[in-house]
Amino acid sequence: MLAQLSTSTLLFLLLAAFFAGFVDSIAGGGGLIQLPALLIGLPKSEIVTVLGTNKLASIFGTGTAASLYRRQIKTDPRALFAMAIPAFFGSVGGAMLASQIPTKAMRPVVLILLVLVAIYTWLKPDLGKIEELRYTHQRRIYISIFAGIIIGFYDGIFGPGTGSFLMLILVASLGYAFISASAIAKVVNVATNLGAILVFGIHGAILWKVGLLLGVANISGAIFGARLAIKGGSALVRKVFLFVTMALIIKVGVDTFNTF
After folding, report:
1. pTM (2 decimals)?
2. How do residues 231-244 score in pLDDT, each as one tens digit?
3. Residue 90: what are its φ and ψ, rounded to 5°?
4. What gap in Å lies between CA 133 and CA 125, rounded to an integer?
5. What is the mean pLDDT of residues 192-219?
6. I want to staple 17 with a disulfide (CB 3.0 to 4.6 A). Which of 7, 11, 75, 217 is the partner?
């Protein structure tokens, strides 16, 4: 497949992967750029193959961003893995059921949830500026486990808005600052991507050479974005988070109304 791509198409996909890694490393939402680019650049490939290839490319950038965040932003390892491990298994379950459940029916619900996320964040300008953890440590672990399973399953079966939902749980419910929430969300996203890749790979629904090449571009963008986010702190992450959530609202809204 890689040899069949023209130079212009390959450059287009690499550029999209770079910017997807950049945006995703700050506040999530890289799929808004990379997935449509793959759909345009690989018009003859099946949708499931495009989805699998997108997950493969994304995990490299997300993993790189997670590593950079972990070096600079200290978070509770127990809470981190309490969300990431269930998210992995949730994603596996969701990906296995992705072809059996009509995801079109999910779009209106996701659209409403994203609008609520955007309004809630917009009306609370101080949200996530500083870290004020809520509940006891044990209760935060339970919430993280439950949220990890649900959001992981959602990412495996559908996907749009996963980063926004993770960030809202971490910031609004558990009391993390935006920068800490982004650091945790990256590790959780690595877990959900890995779960989906496992399922897609078993079913032969990944273009490995294309995904690996785009993964290199994704890493480059993620390094740039993560460093910028760490330097800019929670204020920058909040702004990008709002921008990405609004873009998701528009994208899911257009997809929703085009189905009617």
Report:
1. 0.87
2. 999 999 999 999 88
3. -65, -40
4. 18
5. 93
6. 217
